[in-house]
Design brief:
By secondary structure, the protein is α/β, with parallel strands linked by helices. It has helices spanning 11-23, 34-43, 60-70, 82-91, 105-126, 158-169, 177-184, 194-207, and strands at 3-7, 27-31, 48-52, 75-79, 97-100, 132-135, 138-141, 146-149, 152-154, 174-176, 217-220, 224-227. It has a 5-stranded parallel sheet with strand order 2-1-3-4-5, sandwiched between helices. It has a 4-stranded antiparallel sheet with strand order 6-7-8-9, covered by helices on one side. A hairpin with a 3-residue loop joins strand 11 and strand 12 (224-227). Helix 1 (11-23) packs across helix 5 (105-126), helix 6 packs across helix 8 and helix 7 (177-184) crosses helix 8 (194-207). The radius of gyration is 29 Å and the shape is rod-shaped. It starts with a strand and ends with a strand. The structure holds calcium ion. Residues 9-10, 52, 54-55 line the site of calcium ion (CA).
Length: 229
Amino acid sequence: MSKVLIVEDEVAIADLEKDYLELSGFEVEIETSGEIGLSRALSEEFDMFLLDLMLPGVDGFEICKKIREVKNTPILMVSAKKDDIDKIRGLGLGADDYITKPFSPSELVARVKAHLARYERLIGSNQPENDLIEIRGIKIDKTARRVWVNDEEKQFTTKEFDLLTFLAENPNRVFTKEELFREIWDMESIGDIATVTVHIKKIREKIEINTAKPQYIETIWGVGYRFKV
Ligand code: CA
């Protein structure tokens, strides 16, 4: 749920804003003091700020400027006078939008929603993408440790996943069972190279259509295994 902080010294207006935003599914908190509002805006996580311009002590100009120095969270400035809005624009404080009192609650909600949606798109596009390996019908998501075979997700144990990923990351190279065992199982682990054979068999059952004629992990007789591309 998106969390909105309202900094507004007129309690009736703050309550009105809160009621409408809550009805639209937002979580809303109110601060009537500019000073406390600013400190919470800087130290807590909010998804949007509604700042009244005229506040005793630290005013909306100052809060907006201070937030912008450290955060890109959307800011909607609320003012009683149209003139003030022109002034804010002129100052270039980095507010995302401006609304004049009295405003219609539905307009307020619409603007808050629009800015949150835009901001979420922005954040989403900055998130690093998962590390994927795609070879023919196999897709391995290394970040999420998930595997799909022809768009169907398959479940792998930790070692099966590590072994499949290692082979797929080094295609067309032959590895001996000893090399694979050293690579995937640490030296202290109990077991022997027969473990590799067992795991290859399990992996094939999940990725191959016909395990007798593997299309992905080939057996190189007398040597080891190779992921064929
Ligand atoms: Ca005020």
